[in-house]
Specification:
Blueprint: H1 2-11, H2 17-46, H3 51-82, H4 92-113, H5 120-136
Helix pairs in contact: 1-2, 2-3, 3-4, 3-5
Keywords: Membrane, Transmembrane, Transmembrane helix
């Protein structure tokens, strides 16, 4: 997933090399953390079923885990940037700021970040689904 983000950002002639490295690292770490969670979830869903079900389970579980964890990491980074201007911790105002900053970060990730998974990330997801389905036989 990091390679997919890297290629897409280079092709778009995006920002500076330092920012490209940070985004690539975010996507790579998010995918690395999501892979075992996605596999575990896919095994739970597809246990004892046909290979088509195993492929679909792997495809959906890996995609959801990767997008969810990478989006969560993005939201944490986004929140840490804006924390400087937020109210003192654990107050009512801080809680509202925390929730809405996180929701806005997740929205921005879905709108702007999902495109970085295409086309290479989609191909890798398809290959991982086929690999998982073959392992389940």
């Amino acid at each position: 997933m990091g390679a997919s983000a890297l290629v897409t950002l280079f092709l778009d002639d995006w920002e500076t090399p330092a920012k490209i490295r940070i985004v690539t690292l975010l996507f790579a770490v998010g995918a690395a953390l999501a892979f075992p969670i996605g596999l575990f979830a896919a095994r739970l869903v597809s246990q004892g079923r046909r290979w088509e079900v195993a492929f679909a389970a792997a495809f959906v579980c890996l995609a959801a885990a990767t997008i969810g964890l990478t989006g969560g990491l993005f939201a944490l980074q986004y929140r840490s940037y804006y924390a400087e201007w937020h109210a003192p911790a654990f107050t009512h105002t801080w809680a509202l700021q925390f929730v809405f900053t996180t929701l806005i970060a997740l929205y921005q990730f879905v709108v702007l970040g999902i495109r970085l998974y295409f086309p290479l990330g989609f191909v890798a997801l398809f290959a991982a689904g086929v690999w998982f389905a073959r392992q389940q036989r």
